[in-house]
Amino acid sequence: xxxxxxxxxxxxxxxxxxxxxxxxxxxxxxxxxxxxxxxxxxxxxxxxxxxxxxxxxxxxxxxxxxxxxxxxxxxxxxxxxxxxxxxxxxxxxxxxxxxxxxxxxxxxxxxxxxxxxxxxxxxxxxxxxxxxxxxxx
Length: 137
Known about the structure:
About 65% of the residues lie in helices and about 0% in strands. The protein contains six helices and no strands. The protein has helices at about 10-30, 50-55, 60-80, 85-95, 100-105, 110-130. About 20% of the residues are buried.
């Protein structure tokens, strides 16, 4: 029996690669910024309530959905008994871009078929979180 081919597979891989940048953008949005009013005039230019300004900033809708899909997949994967090794594989292959799956398998002391299975499961989990796959079971 052959494996199904998904048109969205490369898109999900790109989404995983973009996650560190999206996470940095998300963290920056949560930071409060205090600006000094240089005009000397009351009610001059500047942010009057930095907490409210931080709460009102937001990512674009697509970026937020992509961030949530990958973030939730990471959090779910961390709950697995071998979750730390799985996340390390994703980190090495997608974020650091220092290894391919074979090299990542050696790095986490696991077999190549196992790491390939973890890789596919993670991509499908992100796709499910993004709404491209229905929940299994």
